[in-house]
Amino acid sequence: MTDENSGASQEAIEFHYDMPAAFFSLWLGNSMTYTAARYSDPDMTLDAAQADKIKYHLDAANVVEGGRMLDVGCGWGTLISKAVQDRGAASSQGLTLSPLQRDYITGLKIPNVSAELLSYEYYTPDTPFESIVSVGAFEHFVKPGASHEDRLATYSEFFRRCAEWMTPDGRFSLQTMAWGDANDTERGLIRIHDVFPESDLPEIAEVIEAAHPNLELVSMENHPEDYAKTLASWADGLKANRDRAIEIVGKERYQFYLASCKGGALLYRRRRFYLCRFVFKRRGR
Ligand SMILES: C[S@@+](CC[C@H](N)C(=O)[O-])C[C@H]1O[C@@H](n2cnc3c(N)ncnc32)[C@H](O)[C@@H]1O
């Protein structure tokens, strides 16, 4: 990957995500997903809420038997695996900028499930997809300090590509963090790029405006409390597995992830960050 990326480079993504799966599996729970769970019932456990999120995205993107699904920013491959194994999709393809995630998915050896080490910016599919999902990758698509015009141009190009990659009746389910009720001073102090290098969050309005020319908004929800609870559970999981976590990644990295979970939970509780799920379909069909 080169500096031409509009968002986080492969090197920047590796800084946060390219730790052994054995480390993340200590605290992410059964789903092995590194994004906010969906607490449709406030008393849910982390695993139940993650299962709810997975079901939500597969339903929203209309993943059905025989269809094809793309996951932009596929992590360790949970959604692409479930699409084929639980929903009977004919195939599913993931994109990631983490070599360890790509290798992990390849190692699963699930027929018709594959992952490529490639930014969406350089991707061209062979045939269109009935379903596209992207969960927790949009946060990496623009660099800090980009102008409003540049951000909109990058987001618009992403949505234009997604529309082009979809069948006429295709559906796209997007989950992303967004800037919440935070003024400029607070945004400066939060320093999101210390946790996610070369990355900045979108505004809700930017997502909707950028998608509008190519995609119709079907539904949207904003549940910052979902991420507050998820991050609090992750922090508990990390603390409960402290010794093993330090054995795998060292004390400094352990403290980095613990601090980012605790700090993030507080910011979501205070609604300085939002947690949004958008469902889109192609325009003009
Ligand atoms: C927070 S993780 C989320 C992973 C997964 N979707 C989940 O819910 O656990 C962000 C993912 O986005 C990927 N990513 C970031 N920028 C990307 C880009 N430009 N193209 C493709 N994937 C990207 C990362 O490699 C990583 O897999």
The largest beta-sheet arranges its strands as: 3-2-1-4-5-7-6
Structural class: alpha/beta
- Averaging pLDDT over every residue, what do you get? 95
Number of DSSP E strands: 7
C-alpha Rg (nearest Å): 18 Å
User: What level of helicity do the residues show?
Assistant: 40-55%
Q: List the bound ligands.
A: S-adenosylmethionine
Low-confidence regions: none
Q: Could you give the distance between the termini?
A: 35 Å
Q: What coarse outline follows from CA principal-axis ratios?
A: globular
Domain count: 1
Order of helices and strands: HHHEHEHEEHEHHHEHHHE
Key terms:
single chain, 12 helices, 285 residues, binds S-adenosylmethionine, globular, alpha/beta, seven-stranded mixed beta sheet, 44% helix, Rossmann fold
Describe the structure.
By secondary structure, the protein is α/β, with parallel strands linked by helices. The chain has a single domain, classed as Rossmann fold. The protein has helices spanning 10-17, 21-24, 46-60, 78-85, 99-108, 148-165, 184-190, 192-195, 204-211, 224-240, 242-249, 251-269; strands spanning 68-72, 91-96, 113-117, 129-135, 166-179, 215-222, 273-282. The chain has a seven-stranded mixed beta sheet with strand order 3-2-1-4-5-7-6, with helices on both faces. The longest helix is centred in the C-terminal third of the chain and has 19 residues, at 251-269. It is globular and about 50 Å long. The chain starts with 9 loop residues before the first helix and ends with a strand. S-adenosylmethionine is lined by residues 7-8, 13, 17, 33-35, 72-75, 95-98, 101, 119-120, 135-137, 140.
